[in-house]
Each structure stands twice: as structure tokens, then as C-alpha cells.
């Protein structure tokens, strides 16, 4: 290896860490995003060339890796407790009185936002991140280090000086509201379930096994407590300010105060201003500033006595229920939505609220014209939480759920044990058909992006497209006759549709829109059964043998293909030339055909990404957890002990990297 390249690697890492900090923590970038990407790419290239220079804390590791342990657990060095709550000024004064009994009259406090996310405890040694644990049960947490490393505002390497050789820092990881909204929109488009609120989205994201996916979630975080064997100062406020100088993101709104009045001012101020923040807070945390006093106050079994969380009540307003719409989605579920007299709530003008389902309406005994209480909890769409029955007019009609579909007049039905009411007219109900067509063309399915949702609806209403196969028969002439579509965009669309025939089979399967078959499940099924033909004819047993496929999914697949209409649609698609099997692997390359292989630990010749690619290249299926279905395990240095134990229990062959090489070489 040339020393200049080695130096370059070191320099790039240092530079990238620095720019990362400037961009994500202090918001003062010095270079363009493009320039940053170029530096990162150069580093990636060099690291590929010199795998022996692997560094788990290199800025390139931020993009994540899919080799993840099913989250090992580890003990917290210091338990992660909860906080006692206060909901009133009286409770706060009570807290203040108890503190002053010990601290004397001059107690100082630190007021902080109570971030509504997922708490995290991160260990650093010699200025390098070594481990990140979730709270878990407070005593033991999940090791989510790989995922946390993908969060750009969390330092992998510290800057500045004076940090303890070894310490733990605690904070909250959250999903900024804007990111959350975009993510949910994408999920709706892909037919996935929405997250109820940014906190759930953050928690869900942090537990994704594939950290490359986590990297895409744009999580962020703030830190609010430092734990070291010896304190740096007696002041919590001073300590976190020093942590800020090492590159940690500390809220600029954290404030040191001297009296209960100042605490109340802080709480009142943020109660009205919190909607302006880019993230959710659900209260204010008040902490005693002096560590000496903190130690004297100590802990109860559940929480420290030196801190209290003042919780904001969810904001709620009264307004009038004007009418109820019943919307039909892609899967036929009918959702009632309330139209309200517009009212200002938590920073937005609210006109609509979700009513969830029939039971919800019945339980509230909702009448038209009712005065209702609307709340904005964590959810983005506000909800109706109560009715002021005293304001109801005598002649107000009760809200009734229609018996027939508002879109197609079919009789609605309800599946045993499910709250949802559905329109069963799958192939005749316009919003269901249009929804399925939109799903078919969506980015993660056939990816025909030039076809917007409106165009699709138009094509349907004009009688040009009724089933996905119809897309492939559209002509430029037909399209350009549609209003607003010129010759040029019409021919672009036709090209894009033609192009989509090259979409890999895994995504074709997802595009079909089979209930419960999401993007990942589709991939797994495609790779396991190999072709559409096999999937169409698979028995329940064959389907259940596929990892991640349970009775619900198996049933749904069999039902889908037993419907003659679906079968016909799929046959047309096949005739039109879409891909119906996973890419053929050339004969020399299929040495690992269908084998489920797990790699664990650090390998000599391959990075995590490369071993995965190699397994796939030879027809194998890289997996991340040990199960009965695993064919063998390749072990490297520091392999996960639990995996090995499990592998031995299940009698799964464990091989070395060299043995693997022999296996795939001629
Ligand atoms: P709770 O779960 O309601 O008992 O509240 C305790 C949790 O609040 C902690 O585990 C943290 O995840 C979270 N939290 C948010 N902001 C802060 C903060 N500034 N200081 C301490 N904990 C916080
Ligand atoms: Zn219908």
C-alpha cells in the first residue's frame, strides 16, 4: 500500500468527520453537499481497495450495513430510569421544596426540553464511539450501535479536548416532524402502514435490522446527560456545555435558572412555542444542577429525586362536527373522516379529523352538529376525543355508517373479528382499482414515475386503463389526446412503461398488490420460490416454509391467485413480457444456488457489503439471523457468540472464510 494513499484515508476520515459536524451539529457547512459526496466517495473507494484499513468508526460506516445481529443485549453500567412527572405548578413547588431541604436556599436548576423520542445511552472510549444501547427495561438494553452510527448528528469521533477517557452520554433520538411526514407519505404510496407519530417512527426505525435502511430515515437527536466515573465539574449545565464542545448536539434552549418562577416562565414559554420546533416535545425536564446535590437526593426505585418532568397536556379545542365522509382506500377499507368547523390547534388550522372505524363512531354516539373535543396528541391527524352532549340539538341525526359503498354501491361487509368495514367489490370499485394501479406504478414497485396519480385516475376514468396490463397497451396517440398531456410527455410515458418490463421479478411480485405482501416479504418469497409460476401454484405448506411467511400471508397469496380475474391479469402481464422469475444466474455462478448463508464477524477479504454481494452473485441468499433454514455460517474474527451457540444447537455447519473461498472457486 502506498503511504500517500494511507495518509489520504486518514485525512479524508478526519475531514469528513469535521464536515459532518459542521453540517449536522452546528449547521454551518463549509463545503457544498456535492463536494462532501465526492470526498465520501473517494474514501469509500480507498477503503474498498484497502480492506485491512477497515475502521468501524469511519464516516463511510454511516451508510449502514445489513449484517446485523438480531440485537444483542447488554447491561447498562448505570441503570436508565424514568422520570417522575408533574402536571401542575403545585407539584413543581413540592419538588422545589424537597430539593431545597437538602440544597439549601440557593438551588440552581437546569430546564430542558423533554424530547419525545427514544432514549439512548452511548459509550465513548478515547474519543471514539464504542457502543449504543437503548433503554430496554432500564437494566439491560439492545445494542443498536450500527444503527446509531448512521445518525449524522451523532459523533463517531470526538473533537476538542478534555473529554474523559471513558464515559457514557445519554440523549434522545427522534424523527424530525418534516421527515416523519415525508416518510408516512411514502409509506402510504407503497401500501405500508403509517406510523402514528414521530416517536413511533423513531422507535421503529432504530430497530430495523438493516442499518442501511436506518440510514435513510434521517433520524436526529439531542444529548442531555453525561456519566463518567469522575465528574468534570459539579455543574450539570457546565458539563453538557463541555460535551457540546466535543461535537455533541446539545439543545440551544437548555437553560440554567435559579428560581421556581423562572422554571414556570420557561414552561409557559415553551407551551406556546413548542409547535414552532422542528421536533416534538411532550414536556419540560427540570434537573438539579449540582451533581453533589443530585447525589445527596439520590433515587427512588424508578426515578431520580433530583429531576422532574413537567408534562404538557395534549392541546384540545372544541368545534362543531359538520359532516362525515366515508373514504374507500386501495384495500377496500372504508374510513370515516370528520369534517369540522375550522379551528386553530397546535400550530395548524384543523378542518378534518380521523374517526377510525365504525366502533369508534358508535362508542362516541356521534351526531351531526355535535360539539366535539378535538385533540392533537402525537398523531399528525387530530382526533375527536369527546362529545359535549349538553350542546346537542334535539333533532340532530346520529351519524350512521352507510350500508353500501359510497363509490360503487356494493353492500359493505366486515370480516370476523376485525373492526374494519370493507367494500368487497375489489375489481369494480373505482378508488380500489385506481389505488391498485397507483401502487403498481409506484417507485418501489414498477417505478413508472412519469405516470402521476392524477394521470392514472384520468386514464381510468377515460376507460383506457382498468388493470395493470392495460398500461402496456397504451399508445402515444391515446395518451396525447388526454388533456394537459403533450406529444412529448406522452411518448416519455410510453417509453417509461416499456422500460418497466425490465423491473426485477421481486418488485413485480410486490407491484401486484397482494394483501399483506409488502416490499420485503415479496423479495423473500421471490427469492425462495424463484418464479411466478411456482408462487401461483405453491401449496400452503410450501409458502409457510418461507421465513417471515405466516398463515395470514400464505392465505392471502393463495386467495389472490385463486381469483380468476387476478389470474387473468397476471397471465396478460406475462404475455406482455414482464419478468416472471428472479434473474437467471449463469451456470458457473450458481454454486450456492438457494443456499441461505449467514456471515458473522469481521472477515479478511470481504467487507460486510462485499460478502453479501458475493453470496448473491453465486446464487445464495444472505441472511442475518440463524434459523433452521440456514444452510451454513461463515465466521470471521469476533463472531457473534450467540449466533454460534445457536448454530451448534441447530447443527448448522460453521465454516471459515477460506473454506468458503474453496467452495466458490472452480
Ligand atoms: P418517562 O418515559 O415519561 O418516564 O420519561 C423519561 C424519559 O424521558 C427518559 O427515558 C428520556 O428518554 C426522556 N427524556 C426526554 N428529554 C429528556 C431530558 N431532557 N432529560 C432526561 N430525559 C429526557
Ligand atoms: Zn366500493
Molecular structure report:
With 666 residues, the chain is α+β, with helices and mostly antiparallel strands. The chain folds into five domains: 59 residues, Helix hairpin bin (Helix Hairpins), CATH 1.10.287; 239 residues, D-amino Acid Aminotransferase, Chain A, domain 1; 77 residues, Nucleic acid-binding proteins (OB fold (Dihydrolipoamide Acetyltransferase, E2P)), CATH 2.40.50; 147 residues, 5' to 3' exonuclease, C-terminal subdomain (DNA polymerase, domain 1); 78 residues, BRCT domain (Rossmann fold). It contains 25 helices and 22 strands. It has a five-stranded mixed sheet with strand order 2-11-10-3-9. Strands 14-13-12-15-16 form a five-stranded antiparallel sheet, with no helix packed on it. α12 packs across α13. The structure holds adenosine monophosphate and zinc ion. Adenosine monophosphate binds next to β3.
Q: Summed up, what is this model?
A:
By secondary structure, the chain is of the alpha+beta class. It has 25 helices and 22 strands. Helix content is 37%, strand content 19%.
What is the CATH C-level name of the largest domain?
A: Alpha Beta
Net shape: globular
> Which percent range fits the helix content?
25-40%
Quaternary status: single chain
Low-pLDDT runs: none
| Most strands sheet | 5 strands, mixed
The CATH superfamily of the largest domain appears as DNA ligase/mRNA capping enzyme
Number of continuous helical runs: 25
Amino acid at each position: 500500500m502506498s503511504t500517500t494513499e494511507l495518509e489520504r484515508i486518514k485525512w479524508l476520515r478526519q475531514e469528513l468527520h469535521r464536515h459532518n459536524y459542521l453540517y449536522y451539529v452546528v449547521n454551518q457547512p463549509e463545503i457544498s453537499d456535492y463536494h462532501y459526496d465526492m470526498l465520501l466517495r473517494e474514501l469509500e473507494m480507498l477503503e474498498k481497495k484497502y480492506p485491512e484499513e477497515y475502521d468501524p468508526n469511519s464516516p463511510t460506516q454511516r451508510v449502514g450495513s445489513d449484517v446485523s445481529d438480531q440485537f444483542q443485549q447488554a447491561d447498562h453500567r448505570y441503570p436508565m430510569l424514568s422520570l417522575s412527572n408533574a402536571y401542575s405548578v403545585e407539584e413543581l413547588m413540592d419538588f422545589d421544596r424537597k430539593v431545597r431541604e437538602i440544597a439549601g436556599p440557593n438551588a440552581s436548576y437546569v430546564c430542558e426540553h423533554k424530547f419525545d423520542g427514544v432514549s439512548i445511552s452511548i459509550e465513548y472510549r478515547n474519543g471514539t464511539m464504542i457502543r449504543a444501547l437503548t433503554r430496554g427495561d432500564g437494566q439491560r438494553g439492545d445494542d443498536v450501535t450500527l444503527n446509531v452510527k448512521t445518525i449524522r448528528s451523532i459523533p463517531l469521533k470526538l473533537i476538542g479536548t478534555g473529554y474523559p477517557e471513558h464515559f457514557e452520554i445519554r440523549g434522545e433520538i427522534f424523527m424530525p416532524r418534516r421527515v416523519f411526514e415525508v416518510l408516512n407519505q411514502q409509506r402510504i404510496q407503497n401500501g405500508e402502514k403509517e406510523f402514528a407519530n414521530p416517536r413511533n417512527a423513531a422507535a421503529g426505525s432504530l430497530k430495523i435490522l438493516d442499518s442501511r435502511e436506518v440510514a435513510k430515515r434521517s433520524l436526529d437527536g439531542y444529548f442531555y446527560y453525561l456519566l463518567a466515573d469522575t465528574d468534570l465539574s459539579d455543574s450539570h449545565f457546565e458539563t453538557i456545555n463541555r460535551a457540546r464542545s466535543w461535537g455533541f448536539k446539545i439543545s440551544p434552549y437548555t437553560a440554567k435558572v435559579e428560581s421556581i418562577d423562572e422554571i414556570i416562565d420557561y414552561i409557559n414559554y415553551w407551551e406556546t412555542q413548542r409547535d414552532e420546533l422542528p421536533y416534538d416535545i411532550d414536556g419540560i425536564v427540570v434537573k438539579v444542577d449540582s451533581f453533589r446535590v443530585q447525589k445527596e437526593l439520590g433515587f427512588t426505585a424508578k426515578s431520580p429525586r433530583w429531576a422532574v418532568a413537567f408534562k404538557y397536556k395534549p392541546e384540545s379545542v372544541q368545534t362543531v362536527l359538520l359532516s362525515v365522509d366515508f373514504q374507500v382506500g386501495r384495500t377496500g377499507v372504508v374510513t370515516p373522516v370528520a369534517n369540522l368547523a375550522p379551528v386553530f390547534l397546535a400550530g395548524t388550522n384543523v378542518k378534518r379529523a380521523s374517526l377510525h372505524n365504525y366502533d369508534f363512531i358508535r362508542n362516541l354516539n356521534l351526531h351531526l352538529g355535535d360539539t366535539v373535543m378535538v385533540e392533537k396528541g402525537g398523531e399528525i391527524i387530530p382526533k375527536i376525543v369527546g362529545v359535549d352532549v349538553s350542546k346537542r340539538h334535539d333533532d340532530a341525526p346520529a351519524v350512521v355508517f352507510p350500508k353500501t359503498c359510497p363509490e360503487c354501491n356494493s353492500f359493505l361487509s366486515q370480516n370476523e373479528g376485525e373492526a374494519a368495514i370493507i367494500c368487497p367489490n375489489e375489481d369494480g370499485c373505482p378508488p380500489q382499482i385506481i389505488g391498485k394501479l397507483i401502487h403498481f406504478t409506484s417507485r418501489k414497485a414498477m417505478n413508472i414515475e412519469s405516470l402521476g396519480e392524477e394521470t392514472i385516475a384520468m386514464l381510468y376514468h377515460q376507460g383506457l386503463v382498468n388493470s395493470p396490463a392495460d398500461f402496456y397497451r397504451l399508445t402515444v396517440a391515446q395518451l396525447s389526446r388526454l388533456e394537459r398531456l403533450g406529444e412529448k410527455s406522452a411518448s416519455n410515458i410510453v417509453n417509461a412503461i416499456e422500460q418497466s418490463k425490465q423491473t426485477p421479478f421481486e418488485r413485480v411480485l410486490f407491484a401486484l398488490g397482494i394483501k399483506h405482501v409488502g416490499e420485503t416479504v415479496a423479495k423473500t418469497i421471490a427469492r425462495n420460490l424463484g418464479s411466478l409460476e411456482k408462487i401461483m401454484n405453491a401449496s400452503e405448506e410450501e409458502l409457510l416454509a418461507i421465513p417471515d411467511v405466516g398463515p395470514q400471508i400464505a392465505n392471502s397469496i393463495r386467495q389472490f391467485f385463486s381469483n380468476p380475474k387476478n389470474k387473468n391479469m397476471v397471465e396478460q402481464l406475462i404475455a406482455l413480457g414482464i419478468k416472471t422469475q428472479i434473474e437467471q444466474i449463469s451456470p458457473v455462478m450458481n454454486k450456492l444456488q438457494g443456499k441461505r448463508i449467514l456471515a458473522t464477524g469481521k472477515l479478511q477479504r470481504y467487507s460486510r457489503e462485499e460478502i453479501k454481494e458475493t453470496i448473491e452473485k453465486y446464487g445464495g441468499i444472505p441472511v442475518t439471523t440463524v434459523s433452521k433454514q440456514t444452510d451454513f455460517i461463515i465466521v470471521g474474527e469476533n463472531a457473534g457468540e450467540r449466533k454460534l451457540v445457536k448454530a451448534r444447537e441447530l447443527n448448522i455447519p460453521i465454516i471459515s472464510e477460506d473454506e468458503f473461498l474453496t467452495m466458490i472457486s472452480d
